[in-house]
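Researcher: Please predict.
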Amino acid sequence: VEVNDMSLEDYIAVKPKVAVYMPHTAGRYQAKRFRKAQCPIAERLSCSLMMHGRNNGKKLMTNRIVKHTFDIIHLLTDQNPIQILVDAVINSGPREDATRIGSAGVVRRQAVDVSPLRRVNQAIWLLTTGAREAAFRNIKTLPECLADELINAAKGSSNSYAIK
């Protein structure tokens, strides 16, 4: 598994040291600033799926979703699903953003560069949100939608919610 973006190398945890069989390490990755960068990327995806009240804390459910997603990705592309996930995260993180600079009630937008960790966080959030919205009120299951989202984002296709 290769991280092709040099700036995100330290923030996408896919090295053999952090490779885990299950995306459920029960590590305390939120205890300290920047420690979540050491969290395996599949586990971060799994944690990001546990959103919207009714899904809070259901990590075993999201692990099953991630496992099915990776199976689907492998069947569709014949590539390593982790590599597809890494490419999707690299492609869908924003490189530039606009911040609000305001003094005395006048608010102006100013273009700023995005830090690598925020790029990874934002990318994971965008990917899971896109999959969640695609699966909502739809016949397609969440793993299928997430697989589509990841494959499209890895290709850089504009069909992906995260790339848009």
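Model: The mean pLDDT is 89.
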